[in-house]
Amino acid sequence: MSDDITTDLACQELVEIITDYLEGTLPERDRARFDAHLMTCPPCREYVAEMHITLRLTGRLTTDSISAGARDELLRAFRRMKASSTGL
């Protein structure tokens, strides 16, 4: 049986938790699993590198940096996307 910290992390799970990883809010146990996965998965290493580049090039949005109309439009788009993915 493998160590709890190094329990395999699937690529899909990595994609789902990358935001927490990049923001430094991922719990230590999950961060260790994330880092262990990166050591063995070149495609995920490339994905994380691309996300770092994207963040660097686009900067960070804050609620104050976008207009109320743009924020509302984004929220509607996210709600439509969520509704379509859950079959509602």
Kindly describe this structure.
With 88 residues, the chain is an all-alpha fold. Helices cover 70% and strands 0% of the residues. The chain has four helices and no strands. It has helices at 11-23, 28-40, 42-58, 68-86. Mean pLDDT is 82; it is low at 1-6.
Produce a short descriptive summary.
This protein is an all-alpha fold and 88 residues long.
Mean pLDDT: 82
Helix-strand sequence: HHHH
**Secondary structure tally: strands:** 0
Radius of gyration: 16 Å
Overall 3D form: globular
Give the percentage of residues in beta strands: under 5%
**Helix content estimate:** over 70%
Tell me the number of helical segments per DSSP (H or I, 4 or more residues long): 4
Main beta sheet strand tally, sense and closure? none
| End-to-end Cα distance | 40 Å
Q: Which structural class best describes the helix and strand composition? A: mainly alpha
Q: Enumerate the spans where pLDDT stays under 50 for 5 or more consecutive residues.
A: 1-6
Strand and helix layout:
Elements: H1 11-23, H2 28-40, H3 42-58, H4 68-86
Key traits:
88 residues; mainly alpha; 70% helix; disordered N terminus
